[in-house]
Structure formats: C-alpha cells, structure tokens
Specification:
By secondary structure, the chain is of the alpha/beta class. It is built from 8 helices and 10 strands. A hairpin with a 2-residue loop joins β4 and β5. It starts with about 25 loop residues before the first strand and ends with a helix.
Length: about 260
Amino acid sequence: MVAPPDSARLDSAQGVPSVPPQDDLLWARSLHYSHSGSPGLIGVSVGVRQGEILAVTGPRGAGKTTLLSALAGLLVPEQGEIWFNSLPVHTLRPLARERLRRDRFAWIGPEPQLLPELKVWENAALPLLISGVPHRTAKHTACEWLDRLDIGGFARKRPGALNRAESQRVALARALAGAPSVLFADEPTACLHRAERALLLRTLTTAARSHGITVLLATHDEETAAVADRRVALLDGRPAGAAAPPPTTEDQAACSLSA
C-alpha cells in the first residue's frame, strides 16, 4: 500500500482536490465502488511508478479486478480519485476515458478473446490498426512480438489452430504491440500450466523492464506475484489488514432474529 504524502491529501475542510504524488505514474486515493449494492472496493488507495510491476493480490472476490477496472477507466468509482500522469481519470468523460485506454493503456485478462475471423498477426496488430498505424508497420510490430513469444510460426493461421496457452501468448503480444504506458494484467496466467505460465510471465516482465511499461498484475497465485517489484493485498474489497467496521445495531438485531 502506498499512502499519498501529506501534500497529496484531500483538504476536506476547504474542498481542495488532491495533488497526485510526483513519483507515481498512476495513483488512486480512497476508492469506493459497489456492485448492485455489494461492496467491491472500500477505501482502497494505491500508487505505482513508471516501469514498476505491482502485484495486486488476494483471494477470488477480493476486489482485484474491480480495482484494475477502476484504474483503467473501465468503471467510475463512486468515491475517490484516480490520476494518470496528472490527468484526473475519475472526472473524464466516457469518450476521453476510451481514448486514454486506446492510446496509453492495454489490458490482458484470463481469456484471450481473439477474433476468430482474423489471422493471428491481425489479432496482435488490432490496436495498432485501429489507431491508424500503417498496415505494413502494424504487421511488422505485431510479428516481432509474436516471435518474442515463440508464436511467430502461427502468424498467418486463425486462432482456431491454437491451443489455450498459445492463444494467451497472442493476447499478450496484442497488449504489448501498442507500446502502452500501463499494462493491466488481470489473472493472465490463471488457466495456464506451470511451464506456459513461466514463459508468459518472463516475456511480460522482460518487456516491461526494457520498455519502461508499468504493470498492474492481479493474481491470487504466489508464483505469479513473485515476479512483481511490490505487492498490494486486498481482502473483501479492503486493503488487507484493514479492519472491517463493527456491526451496526441493525445488523445485530437481524442476526438475533435469524438465530
């Protein structure tokens, strides 16, 4: 957990917005979010520096995906602030958040989500092609990443010819091809065997360090978390170790009635 310095705190008495720490590329303070009334994030604060690999750990249901989704601008927190490079993500309009995700962020989840009608290299090059990068340049960049992931031999095939681990490597190539500032990796190794998991993580960490990419890696797996520079642990939507609030009088009454 990275607590913001005093100069970055919200002055609630004066209503002055926080100033994000200068050392953090991506920073969030006191995030709250609920899923249909069920708490997803409760007072979570985090900061990550450029080129740093930060593991967000915790069991399933801890709030890891919700935190990454908020930081990536995929959802808007009900309370709290999110800053990317001095840009207030939490106040951006939907189109501005979409542009930020397209131009500066990348995402890889547990499912590859490849388009079956496109060739493998086209899937990897898709973010570049959407951004208007010339066809030849996009193909060259995508194929370079496919080669680094030992999947270049499948470049002209369709995703249906790949197994699960190979498809996930294509998804990672797609995420890295656009040279993102921040890569959000949500349980990217969850469905992989140990050897394939090691290959994916080795490429991800090597690319991050050589290209200065900031990585937020959500995982419940200890070996996966071990590749990170630092960890932030969540539990039930809260920072791990943060005490849950005591039950209210209404809660206690309800428990008595149900007993």
